[in-house]
């Protein structure tokens, strides 16, 4: 600790990224402060992963018990399922408070000083904080980590009243269940809420501006996911249309415009609208100019060591992690970046490998992926001159999936046919979010499919879907 500074490290933002950085730095013996203007834990804990997964857990159970046809195949006959919306909401809210409390305690126990207020840069080694009472203080520090996260992006023309027209910030509270809800956007947040709402008896329409629904997912995964998550639930989809105007009220009025011709094609009236059209970085009012940061579409540019950049130049002592950097905007990415930033602050030279970070959508069944998309893999293969291998392994050939009567699933593995190196994987099916991890680990360890195909998997488990893919791939390596 350098006594010329108030702190060794000041972290702005106590989401997953900031939490990880602050805790890790304190454990390494640094004197650390973390500044938070909202709720400790940020998006993930308060409005993201934690409450949404609590809702999905409850709605998944409702779905399972209410799926009489499925149960009858086991010879089980259930009586009509009854649920209390408010109790499901309580489950999510209680979980949020518990996780938030634990996270705050953990930080305190690690010796991190928590400062409540809105932080901003005042140069490379100075941070200003304005608290809720308007009191402004300046602190000096050797290093700064920006971890200010992101907020829902709301396209122009859409007015929120946070009751009938709202974002995931409100949806996670499950304050009411619209009879008919329109979800704008078919990314992972839109899909997860479609899963919750349909399980709880709402009628859902998904509106997507791009040509196809689920545009960010692998096309083979989309095909099977559409059948299971959309068609089988009678979700109406409208793609290639912009919701150009949404007026809150009872009913909510939606004006839909053709994405290409820009002509109004439809007017809808629904009970509620969830706007799930992506996230925007929280990079305003941070006085970024004071150190020469120029954001790119609002995101703070960083290198693979989490150093903030101005063009090619490194801005000394300033680091950034998490959603505000725009890289694979997930909680575990933010945390991984937080650890790496601190290691590098302490003199290491560690770089992140985004190619081995998995992503999941926690619908029933789940969707997951890691590494390259097939399109990107094709492009890289032709640029680098190797042959791309693609194998598919099906849940319908897996004993565990068959025993569970959950055999609609697919794993697509992308690999280098010359070296056997794993490049990416995309999964749809039961427990896909857990299954992806072993492939992510293989990518991170730079293993090849010859080696991986010799690893023995437990029988009968879903992990054998991965084993089959590895074996198939190994047989194709030249
Ligand atoms: P945030 O969590 O956004 O935290 C930033 C914090 O900084 C906030 O608390 C904010 O109040 C504070 N802040 C901002 N500006 C200032 C300032 N100037 N001064 C002081 N404090 C400031 N990710 C997953 O990995 N798995 C999931 O299942 C998942 N589900 C999600 C579901 C939903 C509905 C949503 C919206 C997101 C989900 N995510 C999920 C994404 C995940 O929540 C984010 O990637 C993660 O929270 C990013 O962490 P962060 O630390 O970068 O930022």
Q: Measured on Cα atoms, how large is the radius of gyration?
A: 24 Å
Number of strands: 23
Structural class: alpha/beta
Quaternary assembly: single chain
**Mean of residue pLDDT values:** 97
Strand portion: 25-35%
Assign an overall shape.
globular
Main sheet makeup: 8 strands, mixed
| pLDDT < 50 runs, ≥5 residues | none
State the end-to-end CA separation.
55 Å
Please count the helical segments: 14
List the ligand species: flavin-adenine dinucleotide
Share of helix, binned: 25-40%
Q: How would you portray this structure in words?
A:
The protein is an alpha/beta fold and 478 residues long. It is 33% helix and 26% strand. It has helices spanning 16-27, 42-47, 49-66, 68-73, 85-109, 168-171, 188-199, 219-230, 331-345, 374-384, 399-403, 432-444, 449-452, 463-476; strands at 7-12, 32-36, 113-116, 118-121, 126-130, 136-146, 150-152, 165-166, 180-184, 203-208, 236-239, 241-247, 252-258, 264-270, 272-275, 279-281, 307-310, 313-320, 359-361, 366-371, 388-394, 410-416, 422-429. Helix 8 (219-230) links the parallel strand 10 (203-208) and strand 11 (236-239). Helix 1 (16-27) packs parallel to helix 9 (331-345). The chain is globular. The mean pLDDT is 97. Flavin-adenine dinucleotide (FAD) binds at residues 12-18, 35-38, 42-44, 47-49, 52-53, 118-119, 147-150, 168, 189, 282, 286, 322-323, 329-332, 334, 362. InterPro entries: Class-I_Pyr_Nuc-Dis_Oxidored, FAD/NAD-bd_sf, FAD/NAD-binding_dom, FAD/NAD-linked_Rdtase_dimer_sf, Lipoamide_DH, Pyr_nuc-diS_OxRdtase, Pyr_nucl-diS_OxRdtase_dimer, Pyr_OxRdtase_I_AS. It is an enzyme of class 1 (oxidoreductase). Disulfide bonds join 44-49.
